[in-house]
Structure formats: structure tokens, C-alpha cells
């Protein structure tokens, strides 16, 4: 892997580029820069008592800080690490000679050894780092393809279909590897070190000895690895990347220039948690990775048009948003009237807002999705890894249909933000409860 050129980049841009590259050399370079910079506080250690940690892998909110309006602050740096079961991690009883020689145990159930190793490695992360964005939070999710190897099928209480194209204008590739590890921290060096510890040749993490790692259990798909960032100032530090214009506002937390993920327009962790069956306490995750036509968004549209398309024409006319969403407190400001007036907005203003459309999928006034998406410049182009948690994937599909707004009589350029997004990949995952996070069978009770 070639490391980015330090002399050509600001410190923030350099660190972001190192996270995107990944690996041991990137980690050393990142540690050098963070030592010289302002990230010199020690990283808080984790716990030796696994029972003190939450039963849900997706329990991040109560461990996260909130802004002055009470909105949860997502960790600043993210890595999505795709993996498949390694050959040799399969169950010996089910393992044939042919299976042992195969590149991946795609047809073989995982062995108890592989399960134990996975759980031990994940517990080591929890001992090394406090379960919080100042330390590390993570999830391990499994695709429908992973569960295909088992004789039993997933219980009815888990809604996890294979991913599919969700709009007429997309032709995405699908995440068909076995699992996805989501590592997230405010510290870029922690994200890199955690991945290196799990898959590289480190013998300690944050002062904690590594008993084992995942190299014999999972193979990484380096070509599918994804990274990103969220937080005021981070997008504006990426203007070294082609397609990221200088006009990205300095304080914007996302590349498209506005705050998102307000407390009252997010589902609670309870709302997205599977509440019955052996995977109760888990959730489902959808990840779509998309390019954003950011130069057109900032070059052709003015602030008024961007607010109309992202929020609603009323938000723009009444100046409800501020430069980057600073006028909004803990809600997007989309009201019941705003939701009901989507059609009228199309007719009268020729523009419909993204938030206004997506809110049509609320249930009894409550949003069904907990969005933990983040911006990216993977592949040196602007994009978004849209990561959402919901009780079942059907709920995501329903919200995505509302976002499409197929019935609205409006040109594609003015139909929310659809015109600017190009979906490249989609993946669906089950995030089991923590007790079943290590290579779960499809039917745990049977
Ligand atoms: C680059 C891509 C995207 C950007 C920049 C973006 C931005 C926003 C913003 C600014 C809001 C209003 C503030 C808030 O409620 O947090 C919002 C709301 C929302 N967005 Fe997006 N969004 C993007 C993609 C998507 C996608 C792909 C979906 C999937 C269906 C989605 C679903 C939602 C939902 C469910 C809401 C809240 C609706 C409600 O209030 O009930 N967004 N988004």
C-alpha cells in the first residue's frame, strides 16, 4: 500500500487518508502525526468484566456525548471491514477434504474453535478500549449469504432478505461476503490499531496483550473495505480530493453541507431492536455506499435551493435552517403539515425536500430508522456510506420508497437529493445480540 504524501496535505486530510489506506504502515504514520498533534490524551481502557457491557451490540447512544441540543454525536472516524469465513474455520465434522482445500468455507458451518477465537478477540478489544467514542465502539454483522451455510433457516422474527436494487435508476453490487465489522472511534489511530490488532501482527492494543486474533477465522476483502468520517470541520478538510469543492462550509459535519441525525428524527435504539425470538436484542443493518455529485450540488444550486431539496421549500422560504443546520435544535423541523404538503410542494414550488419525503414513512409520528451514516472520500471521490439500523430490512425498504417519492409530480433534479446520489453497493446484515455475535447459527435454539 502506498502512503499518502504528507507534504501535500493538511494534518486532518493526511490522517483521513491514512485511515482509508489502513494497515500497519498507515497506523505507524498515524501515531506519529497524532503524537505531534492535539490527540495526545491517553485513550481510555476498557473493562475486564464483559457482563458490565450492554447486551446489544448497537448500544452506543448512552455511551456517546451529546451536543448542546441533546443530539447524539456519532464517533468521528469509521471503518467497515468486510470478511468471509477462512478455510479451516469450518466445523471438522462437516468438513470434507474438498471443503478443507477450498478458498473459503462458504458451505461449511463454523467450528466451535472459530467461535471461541472470535469471541476472545472481540473481548480483547473491549478490554483494550472503553466502550465509547473516546475509546472504541464496534459491531459485527452477518449477511444473508453467511446464514445460507446452515441447515436451519433464520427465525421469522428476523427480517433479513438478500439485498436488491431499490430504485429504477440504480444497478448496485451486493455485499455477499459473510460479515462486516464496523469499527468507530473519535480517534483515527484507534480505528486503525483495532483493525491491525484483529488482523495484523500486533501483540498489544492500548497496553492490553492480544491473546488471539481473527486471522485464522476470517479473510478480509481489502477491495471492499470502506472508511469515512463525520463531524464539524472534517468534510471541509477534504477539499484536496477531486470533486470536493472549496465551498463545503467550514462547520458542516457531512459533505452535503448540513447537520443530520437529530434526536427527534432518529429512531431510538429500543425502536430498532428485534424484540422476539433467539435474536431478540439484535437489530438489522442496511449499508448502501453511494457517490455524491458534490460539485453540481454546490456549483449549480444556491443555499436556498439546497435547503429546499434537503429539507423542504418551507424551510427555505422561512429560513428555518441556518448555514449548516445551526438553527435547528433537536429536530429537522419537518412537521406533520410539512409531511402532508409534499404533493403540494411539488405542485406549487416544483421542489420536494428529502427530509419531508423520508418523514412520510414515520409510524405514529416516530421514525423507524436509526441512521449512523457517514461521509467518505474512498476511492478519492466524495460519497456517503449510508448505514441505518431498523428492526427489519422491510422497514428500510419502506422508508427508501418514501424517499423515492415515485408518485410526486416533480422533475428528478428537484426531487429531494435523488439527482445527486449514485448507489454503488447495497448490503443487509443481522447484528445479533452480543451473546450471539461470534459466528451465530441461523437457528440458535434448535
Ligand atoms: C448523502 C445522503 C443523505 C444525506 C446528506 C441526508 C441528509 C438528511 C438530512 C439533512 C435530514 C434531515 C435532518 C434529520 O432528520 O436528521 C435527513 C432525514 C432523513 N433521511 Fe436522509 N440523507 C441522505 C440519505 C438518506 C437515505 C439513503 C435514506 C434512506 C432511506 C435517508 C433517510 C432519512 C430519514 C429516514 C430521515 C428522517 C425522516 C424523519 O424525520 O422521519 N436519508 N436526511
UniProtKB/TrEMBL annotation:
<dbReference type="Pfam" id="PF24152">
    <property type="entry name" value="DUF7405"/>
</dbReference>
<feature type="region of interest" description="Disordered">
    <location>
        <begin position="88"/>
        <end position="118"/>
    </location>
</feature>
<feature type="region of interest" description="Disordered">
    <location>
        <begin position="34"/>
        <end position="55"/>
    </location>
</feature>
<dbReference type="InterPro" id="IPR055828">
    <property type="entry name" value="DUF7405"/>
</dbReference>
<dbReference type="InterPro" id="IPR011008">
    <property type="entry name" value="Dimeric_a/b-barrel"/>
</dbReference>
<protein>
    <recommendedName>
        <fullName>Tat pathway signal protein</fullName>
    </recommendedName>
</protein>
<feature type="compositionally biased region" description="Low complexity">
    <location>
        <begin position="88"/>
        <end position="111"/>
    </location>
</feature>
